[in-house]
Amino acid sequence: QGLLDLLDVRVGDWVRMTVGARPQILHIVGRSIEPENGGRVISTSLDTLRENDPELRPTLYQLQLRPGADPGRVAAELTAAGHGHLDVHAVTNPADGLSPLRGVVVGLIAVLALIGLIELLTAVGGTVREGERDLLALKAIGLSPRQITA
User: Fold this and answer.
1) 112 and 142 belong to one structural domain
2) Predicted pLDDT of residue 143
3) How many CA atoms are closer than 13 Å to the CA of 76, on its beta-carbon side?
4) 38 DSSP 8-state letter
5) b/e string for 90-105 if b means 16 or more Cβ within 10 A?
6) 42-69 b/e (C-beta count within 10 Å ≥ 16 → b)
7) How many domains does the chain have?
């Protein structure tokens, strides 16, 4: 989304980008929210880019491991297989850092709900007290219970 905003383009527009040393003309078919580089990212397949530049080589691979796979072991195997030509980095899940924050949010919601309940009880209590004063005043001037309720 950040790149679309920067270039002032929308889905359906065509943009000219330089990839490697060659210009590429790409059709914007959708948008996604990318945290990398302030969202100024284009996601496309390598095959699309190789149509104009068959010599283009990838500079980055992102792997998603199967559930239960040991990231340390996979990183060690990739490093060994790359013979020192690969930099392997494990990326942590950004959502994992939100777990402590969830407790704070739940606590804040509970405190706000308690404050709201106390405010409601205070308003009801004030209304009842005001009605009692009115009732006593009406009795003091001599009205009967039937006249007061009517």
Assistant:
1) yes
2) 84
3) 5
4) G
5) eeeeeeeeeeeeeeee
6) eeeeeeebeeeeeebeeeeeeeeeeeee
7) 3
User: Which two three-digit tokens encode residue 49?
Assistant: 């880019």
Residues 32 and 85 both lie in one domain: no
What pLDDT score does 106 carry?
A: 92
Q: Looking at the predicted structure, is the pLDDT value of residue 1 above 80?
A: no
What pLDDT sits at residue 66?
A: 92
- Pick from 49, 53, 77, 50: nearest CA to 63: 77
Pure H helices in 39-98 = 46-50, 71-81
Q: Are residues 41 and 80 in the same domain?
A: no
Give the containing element (helix H, strand E) for 7.
helix 2-7
**Residue written as token pair 């210009």:** 23
Distance CA 117, CA 121 (A): 6
CB under 8 Å, gap of 24 or more: what pairs does 116-122 form? none
Structure tokens belonging to residue 139 = 């009795």
- Whether residues 103 and 141 share a domain: the answer is yes
Least Cα distance to 56 among 9, 14, 17 occurs for: 17
**Mean pLDDT, to the nearest integer, of 11-22?**
88
